[in-house]
Design goal:
With 244 residues, the protein is mostly helical. Helix content is 79%, strand content 0%.
């Protein structure tokens, strides 16, 4: 019986995800984001390869998290804000859908778009593998770390989009939260000694760097999954606020 109840719910999530993903590619959003992302990362990679004569993905993995700070909010700012502005959120919520289904479906669509943007960068990995020795473990860890980081950022961006119907405001809020998490472990010299370990643990780049070295630590996985789940929970709470 429980299986029969759960199946339609995840079918709803998949339907919303497919709808949102199509909407990205039916507009200029997906193409602009993909082109901008790939141009910036491609420029960084080719500079390190041809100008610095470094056949390595290290600079690639160092730059992508910074680019995510701008790319992910641009993808997520419209998810809920646009629905609110044009009034379709009310139509969406009158359908037999749970709020968490709406949130999860939109989250999956935006996360998949980021994953699609990362696929062409595998060419850099193939290039490095052909030109010299490559540590496959660090490459796998790096891409896993990027997907986890992107998941957290998408969840935060989705939460920010539930706060307002203005997409620019949603972009700014998401960017500020993501930037704060990104810089936590870079301001340790200004933090009292007894708080250093706590602030360092809160920094998302600290955990990404650990995974990108090819070290899969359960503490890092717990950090990413907890932050992702908490952000999605906040998004569901803010969506349910209309009922209060």
């Amino acid at each position: 019986m429980s299986r029969n109840v759960q199946l339609p719910r995840f079918t709803n999530v998949r339907t919303i995800c497919q709808k949102e993903l199509r909407s990205y590619f039916n507009s200029a959003v997906a193409y602009v984001v993909l082109v901008v992302f790939l141009v910036i990362i491609g420029w960084v990679y080719t500079n390190s390869l041809f100008l610095l004569n470094i056949a390595s993905l290290r600079i690639f993995f160092e730059w992508v998290p910074s680019v995510f700070l701008f790319v992910v909010p641009a993808i997520t700012m419209r998810l809920m804000a646009e629905e609110k502005k044009i009034g379709t959120i009310e139509l969406l919520t009158t359908k037999p859908l749970e709020d968490w289904e709406i949130v999860l479906g939109k989250f999956c669509a935006a996360w998949l778009l980021i994953a699609i943007a990362l696929v062409p960068t595998l060419l850099y990995y193939l290039t490095v593998a052909l030109l010299g020795n490559v540590d496959h473990g660090t490459v796998i860890g790096g891409y896993l770390g990027l997907l986890l980081m992107a998941g957290v950022y998408v969840a935060i961006g989705l939460f920010a989009s539930t706060l307002t119907e203005n997409q620019i405001v949603a972009f700014i809020v998401a960017f500020l939260i993501m930037a704060l998490l990104y810089w936590f472990d870079k301001i340790l010299i200004f933090v009292p000694g007894f708080l250093t370990s706590v602030v360092e643990y809160l920094g998302i780049d600290y955990h990404f760097s650990s995974i990108a070295r090819g070290v899969i630590d359960t503490r890092d996985l717990v950090y990413f999954l907890s932050l992702l789940g908490f952000s999605l929970y906040l998004a569901v709470v803010m969506l349910e606020r209309r009922k209060w």
